[in-house]
Amino acid sequence: MIRDQIARPAPDADPGFGVYVHWPFCLSKCPYCDFNSHVRGAPIDEERYLAAFKAEIAHRAALAPGRTVASVFFGGGTPSLMRPQTVQGVIDAIAGKWRLDPEAEITLEANPTSVEAGRFRGYRAAGVNRLSVGVQSLSDAALKTLGRRHTAAEALEAVKLAASLFPRFTFDLVYARPGQTESDWRSELKRALDFVGDHLSLYQLTIEPDTIFERLRDAGKLQLPDEDLALALFSAARELTEARGLPAYEVSNHARPGGESRHNLIYWRYGEYAGVGPGAHGRLATPKGRLAQETERHPEMWLTQVETEGHGLVENTPLSREEQGDEFLLMGLRLREGVDPRRFERLSGREIDRDRIKSLVEDGFIELDARGRIRVTPMGAPLLDTVVADVAA
Residue 40: its pLDDT value, please? Predict the structure, then answer.
């Protein structure tokens, strides 16, 4: 039966093409953050950075001409530290080198401090139509622990302003924080859901290498909830969001039908995207094959490289078929919709091990839908990395 189900064709639509723009600067470095973010004491020369963004966009457009851009995502760092004019200049450059879909989703990540919230109107005028607000918590004590510079009240005011100005908005919360109980989390999430639009991101706090939190943990000064409590918090999130009509469509992301992040769906459905800015990643389909791209991480070094070479790439490597298959599974199995095994076979050049799939189904970690797609079950979701490794083996 498993063999019959998995062999049924279920071709996926084109996931689309997106552009990711990385703004690497922050007012301060959060102790849990391992993103490519940097603090600078002097003002940033935004004109110089805008010129470099334009050069990188032109470079990627030459590698991947004729694309229609379905989404643009300004990430960071803290993109809401950019002037609206800079954001407008980047959007205009993208539209000048590719076709920008009239219905394109254009997202900008924002921190909810009063200074940045005051810029929201400028971002909307620049063409941003979806704002992602970094709320992180509705507890002032937790925000202090997380190194955030805003209060819960400021965060909610920023969310309300985003709801009034942008056609779509989202915000995120971090759970499994030091000292957090299930009761605390349920209360906080219920309150947050009163302010939600069509999307909400809920991320489990993890200790990343080379962060302040890692040093505190190793010194015995920081302890996160144990595995059982973390699982209870995860399950509570699934329960409460489902009840409010925002089911999980990805491990950490919840949306009303049609409210999913179109940009992130390009990643998770293994589409094509250009990455520009310091430390940005990209995946482009070219005559040389599917290229894995990464730019120089250090902002000033990236800037100098772009000005001298016309781009900031430090990696521009064709992926093998096996690597493409592994990436496809790693990204696609995060989604509630799962993956089409036939696409895996087209990408990787090999079949998925049917016996291994059968075993994972019997153990309750994955299931096959009516179209033959493989998807992770609620029981398998907390063990996603292990499940993906088993499917890919």
Answer: 84
Amino acid at 113: T
pLDDT in tens, 102-156: 999 999 999 998 677 889 999 999 999 999 999 999 999 999 998 898 999 999 9
Instruction: State the burial class of residue 79 (Cβ atoms within 10 Å of its Cβ: 0-12, 13-18, 19+).
Output: buried
Q: What one-character-per-residue DSSP string does 221-281 give?
A: ------HHHHHHHHHHHHHHHHHTT--EEETTEEE-TT-S-HHHHHHHTT-EEEEESTT-E
Please indicate, yes or no, if residue 90 is contained in any of the structural domains: yes
Q: What residues make up the domain containing 338?
A: 322-393
**Distance between CA 244 and CA 193 in Å, rounded?**
8
Q: What is the domain-level CATH number for residue 336?
A: 1.10.10
Please report which helix (H) or strand (E) contains residue 38, including its range.
strand 38-39
Residue of 250, 315, 326, 249 lying closest to 283 (CA atoms): 315
CB environment 3-23: b (16+ within 10 A), e (fewer): eebbeeeeeeeebbbbbbbbb
Using alpha carbons only, give the angle 211, 214, 219 rounded to the nearest 5 degrees: 135
**Number of compact structural domains in the chain:** 2
> Are 313 and 281 within 8 A, CB to CB?
no
Pairing of strands 17-23, 68-76: parallel
pLDDT tens-digit map of 7-43: 333 345 789 999 999 999 988 877 777 677 788 888 9
